[in-house]
Amino acid sequence: MKVADDPNALARILIAPALIYIGAVIGVPFVLSLWFAVSDVTVSSAAGHYVGLENFRSAMGDPSFRRALRNTFLFAVASQVIVVILATTLAVALQKDFRGKWIVRLLILLPWVAPVSLGSIGWLWILDSIYSVINYGLYHWFHVCGPEPGMTACPVWLGQPSLAMASIIGVQVWRTLPLATVINLGGLSSIPQDIHDAASIDGAGFFRTMFQITIPLVLPILLVAVLFGFVFAFTDMIVVWVLTRGGPYDMTQVLASLAFFKGIDGGDLAGASAIALFLFPVLAAAAILLLRLARRAEVI
Are 34 and 48 in contact (CB under 8 A)? Predict the structure, then answer.
């Protein structure tokens, strides 16, 4: 059959390389992880034996896994709530015309353009217990804390459990905020100006326009930004690995980092695959829920 005889043949030919690439990069590792999760394969022994759901039962009985599961949800939900609020605020502000607007846009995009590992190393220095520029400012500029007698000791940002969790959440917000801002800005730009003009003529103020017109119209796009943020937060371990490596006392360990340490450092590929696969139903359910909400939120 010639391409000219089938109007969809060209489309299938053009999309085939992308499908092959996705199948090779994502499909093959996913199938392997399914086999690893129900076997006893290790780094030193690739020829594993079928053990059923034993790896999943072992993971659920591990206190480190339960702690990592709680930390993963806290890390993802807290960071995305902050990102949604800040991204919406920045997108609304960037719609206005002001001097130096392009510089502000450039600075907002920099965290997304820069390699996440390089940015995390920078934050590692900023939050260092000895050379922290934050503690330096608190001591020399504000005299809030310091080594002098009678002064409160400066916080050890990555050494105290609550501060360490707050730190990795803050860095995750810094990392994912640019993408969410750009997505929201695109959604706000798609709203016809006539709608805002009509609301202004009717006497609607800023907050009424924002919550009754702008947010409902941009909500489908905002939910897509939230979906991307959740996927990054649930599956990425670079921020945790660079800043805390799951410490102190596994209080910042997430499922992605726990699977890495168990599989690569510990050599237990089967146990690591079982831990990693716990993310799949969570992400699948979140994707279906958010996409359905986005579809229902569409304004016809």
Answer: no
